[in-house]
Amino acid sequence: MERMHFLLFFLLPVLVFQGYYCQRGFAVTVTYDHRALVIDGHRRLLLSGSIHYPRSTPEVWPELIRKSKEGGLDVIETYVFWNYHEPVRGQYNFEGRFDLVRFVKTVQKAGLFVHLRIGPYACAEWNYGGFPLWLHFIPGIQFRTTNTPFKNEMERFLAKIVNVMKEEKLFATQGGPIILAQVENEYGNVEWAYGVGGQLYVKWAAAAAVDLNTTVPWVMCAQEDAPDPIINTCNGFYCDQFTPNSPSKPKMWTENYSGWFLSFGYAIPFRPVEDLAFSVARFFETGGTFQNYYMYFGGTNFGRTAGGPLIATSYDYDAPIDEYGFIRQPKWGHLRDLHKAIKQCEPYLVHSDPTYVPLGPKLEAHVYYKGSEGCAAFLANVDDKMDMNVTFNGNSYNLPAWSVSILPDCKNVIFNTAKVVSQKILGDLSYGSTTIMKENLFATSTWNWYKEQMGIWSNNSFTASVLLEQINTTKDTSDYLWYTVSIDVNEKLSPNKEKEVFLLVESLGHAALIFVNKRLVGFGYGNHDDASFIFRKAITLKPGNNTVDILSMMIGLQNYGPWFDVTGAGLFSVSVSDLLKASGDFSSREWTYQVGLEGEYLGLDKPSLANSSLWTSGNQLPINQSLIWYKTTFIAPEGSGPLALNLASMGKGQAWVNGQSIGRYWPAYLSPTSGCSQNCDYRGSYDASKCLKKCGEPAQTLYHVPRSWVYPGENLLVLHEELGGDPSKITISTRTGQEVCAHISESDPPPVDYWTLNSGFNPMLSPEVRLICEQGWRIASINFASFGTPEGQCGKFNHGICSADNILSVIQEACIGLESCSIPVSTLKFGDPCPGLVKTLAVEALCSV
After folding, report:
1. Which of 153, 186, 346, 452 is catalytic?
2. How many structural domains are present in the chain?
3. What pLDDT digit, counting tens, does each position of 287-336 carry?
4. What are the C-alpha distances in Å from 234 to residues 32, 189, 238, 248, 461?
5. Domain limits at 611?
6. Domain ends where: 698, 714, 735?
7. Is 271 in the same domain as 369?
8. Annotated catalytic residue 255
9. Are 15 and 141 in the same domain?
10. Are strands 268-269 and 252-257 parallel, antiparallel or unpaired?
11. Tally of helices (H runs) and strands (E runs) in the chain
12. In 3D, which of 17, 101, 29, 97 has the Cα closest to residue 59?
């Protein structure tokens, strides 16, 4: 009970101020000064996390937000996605995953604030950066510059979103949770490409936003020339050296990348939590006041929402909450402890500017004072190799390399960014675990199939004497465009003989299947950094007429870069040459075009066609064939958790469950075999290519199926396979538990939330091993426990040279059957198996439903 009092002492001011105002709808003023955002007259130090509402489902929004709040966040940040809110000009969609009002109200109900990044350009690895494609076809339009047609449309959509929020009374001054809004997004990175038009556009966008009178501050991220009163903010892996463009503006960080996005054909990037925590602590150490994780929950690019080129369906981002909504440990727990430590310093941090104190080469302190009430300090070692001992305020401290220690009283270290003491989780839905229930439901399933017709399949085709650019032709109604041309082999030159020639296809991207006389001859494709490609192959033509059918495929529209909106796709050159090097350019021949696939036109992905006679059945399932649709039904595994469909046996295509698109898949595209490392050193500056895993493997094999998309009985699975695969080898998984572990030394400090500014650490408190299961799960078993000198690491612990007796039974008694438990790491509890040695407690446990 005493410990609960300590925790309530820490949380009560935040709960009273934030939860009370947010949940009960009290109107508050939101302003700012040079030190912080000022909410209802109080400077606030705010921790934020990005959650994009369409990348999950409304059913799980409350759970995601709850976990964010428990992780120590004050604010949820989200983009607004114009292309799905206004798919047709003047026709709006705010339903389902795109119910923005419901999302904001869900955040408010949890007692958190909202930062609404309206943009309307989002980037976000989202299709076309969030712009609707119809915008592209407005006469005379140029995006993101001082162009009247664009400004008119952008201003109209900004006003639409602001008015929707006002009508629902969702701005803070109306009693809602929205304390910040953003106009544009990272425009400063590309402004140079637009010349004077770009400079004028920035001023116009700022004025247009302010004129909307949201009554809360506006920000522009990565925009050094953001005019007053717009706050310019920082995006990047580190923002401690960032300075706002006016001494009247606070130092804010809108995107601190928790990891990086995933692309087909690339290894999986991840960011060690020690470095992420280091970046956050350095930011607040050097005067930061608002920090946002991009992403705190990344989620999934369902359907065709992924941007391009070649952004994967998973948007997990190595975030503290993983793609499936599970807490990722130790990232979530270590950051939670960091947030608590920073909050303990808040009274000092919002009261004064930091005082810099040099401590030695690459060693420094920043101190915050509050009159005669003492001080808070951050001690930093920015050397990426050497641990150092420093003296500060007459006391000695050890600082690991690339770390920050937090001292809320300028004396006691309650947190160091490099010392991870939060629990870890063994395995996840992506990498396999004994707590994953995998079912081979499809090996004995009854499969039906439909063979896609190659080339022109209907009378709505059309011709042109030029190679058409794909996006302007399809208007992004489909990933696919058929290009068909005839090649005549003169019989006088090759009487009654087949003729070998070389086919050269050049494409802006992103991929293409090439057929000659209805037979597949090859597949060409690009990559995320350069989607263009050249396909060369010797082919054989018969005497007389020959057909070349090329299915060009898009994998997400470009979402970033200057003038990204005019980046093209599709074929731009097709030629053939014979063995004598005589060549013929077919680019200006008459081509016949067909937008989309026959199966798309028929609606084979829809449940209404599940029993259609269009589908073929039989005992011999056709496998490893291109352009084929598959259909089957399955019974979902029991439980309420999310599902993962393993499509490793497939090539490339799209998948639907009960008519809901779970996205594009491409496991046939393997990542490079080099560049990965088992143990990535967190020390030193991080970039997106520093820490990689799963080299030589597909970027993604598991595909998220939200539980709300499946039924208790039969469910429909439809696949469109482009390259060739074996659907009978598909499996489906759900998590039935978690293996958790912790390893804490008796020399570690007590948990951060036992600290108070009045009394520091209670000297009677010990460090603790804390085991926490997902909500609703319980600790079912203790698989390992040792107090003494255990060796190894989580999942591979062994007893060391000494170990106290009966530890396993003690831990079992304390924890089994509970959702969480805390075990003091103390010889008073376990005895002393090896006097004179520093002892640790290592525990591995199984949580289950």
Report:
1. 186
2. 5
3. 999 999 999 999 999 999 999 999 999 999 999 999 999 999 999 999 99
4. 17, 11, 9, 16, 49
5. 436-451+601-735
6. 735
7. no
8. yes
9. yes
10. unpaired
11. 14, 46
12. 97
User: Do residues 695 and 344 make contact, with C-beta atoms less than 8 angstroms apart?
Assistant: no
Nearest residue to 127 (alpha-carbon basis) of 338, 299, 303:
303
Instruction: Tell me, yes or no, whether 457 lies in a domain.
Output: no
Contacts of 802 (CB under 8 A, 6+ apart): 788, 789, 833, 834, 837, 839
**CA-based nearest residue to 806, from 820, 788, 781:** 788
DSSP three-state, residue 281: helix
Per the CB < 8 A criterion, the answer to whether 778 and 819 are in contact is: yes
Would you say the C-alpha torsion 828, 830, 831, 836 has a positive or negative sign?
A: negative
- Residues whose CB falls within 8 Å of the CB of residue 588, separated by 6 or more in sequence, listed in order: 465, 466
pLDDT at position 633 over 70: yes
Give pLDDT, residue 494.
58
Spot the catalytic one: 184, 255, 323, 774. Answer: 255
* Helix (H) or strand (E) run with residue 223 in it: none
Tell whether 431 is covered by a domain.
Answer: no
Q: How far is CA 795 from CA 327, 328, 666, 824, 846, in A?
A: 18, 16, 32, 21, 11
Residue 63 has pLDDT above 50, yes or no: yes
Using CA atoms, how far apart are residues 815 and 801, in angstroms rounded to an integer? 26
pTM over 0.85? The answer is yes
Distance separating alpha carbons of residues 330 and 682, to the nearest angstrom: 14
Copy the structure tokens of residue 729: 């080898």
Task: Report yes or no: 229 and 249 within 8 Å, Cβ to Cβ.
Answer: no
The two tokens of residue 25 are 């709808």
Residues 639 and 579 reside in one and the same domain: no
Q: Tell me the pLDDT tens digit for each residue of 712-760.
A: 999 999 999 999 999 999 999 998 888 999 999 998 888 998 887 666 7
Q: Retrieve residue 713's tokens.
A: 């009985």
Q: Helix or strand or coil: residue 798?
A: strand
Q: How do 231-236 and 252-257 pair as beta strands?
A: parallel
Which parts of 442-518 are beta strand (E)?
448-451, 462-464, 480-489, 499-507, 511-516
| Cβ density class 303-334: b for 16+ within 10 Å, e for less | bbbbbbbbbbbbbbbbbbbbbbbbbbbbbbbb
Q: Is the peptide bond before 229 cis (omega within 30 degrees of 0)?
A: yes
Q: How many CB atoms lie within 10 A of CB 361?
A: 10
> CB neighbours (10 Å) of residue 396?
8
Residue 576 is encoded by which pair of tokens?
A: 């053939």
CA pair distance 834, 789, nearest whole angstrom? 9
Q: Please say which residue of 735, 765, 794 terminates a domain.
A: 735
Q: For residue 713, which amino acid is it?
A: G
Do 290 and 405 fall within a single domain?
Answer: no
82 and 143 assigned to the same domain: yes
C-alpha R_g of the chain: 29
Residue 430 has pLDDT above 60, yes or no: no
At 493 the pLDDT is 47
Residue closest to 553 by CA, chosen among 427, 440, 654, 451: 654
Element (H, E) at 128: none
pLDDT of residue 436: 65
